[in-house]
Amino acid sequence: MSVAALKLRRVGSVDAAAFLKWSIGEDLRKAREGRGLTQAEVARRARMRREVLSRLEAGRGNPTVRTVQRVLRAMGYRA
């Protein structure tokens, strides 16, 4: 069973799409903090506004795969 499936089992009645957006955002935030980067630094490197990155990390955005890749590359990950 995948990690996402295990997380969904724990969440119960929460909407799956909303949970996945939150999960991606939470993972992006943890990755950024793990690298010791600020939202402003990552946003500048990814060529996006800091507010957009903040919404993504909070699970309020609807990022495309390409956007997630841009953010990860801005943090120094190979995506």
Number of helices: 5
Low-pLDDT ranges: none
Give the SSE order as H and E letters: HHHHH
Secondary-structure class: mainly alpha
Structural Rg:
13 Å
In words, what does this structure look like?
This protein has helices spanning 3-11, 16-34, 39-46, 50-57, 65-74. The protein has 79 residues and is mainly α. Helix 3 (39-46) packs across helix 4 and helix 3 (39-46) packs across helix 5. The protein is globular. The model has no long low-confidence stretch (mean pLDDT 84).
Question: How do the strands and helices of this protein lay out in sequence?
Answer:
Elements: H1 3-11, H2 16-34, H3 39-46, H4 50-57, H5 65-74
Helix pairs in contact: 3-4, 3-5
Quick structural summary:
With 79 residues, the chain is mainly α. It has helices at 3-11, 16-34, 39-46, 50-57, 65-74.
Sum up the structure in keywords.
globular, mainly alpha, 79 residues, 5 helices, 0% strand
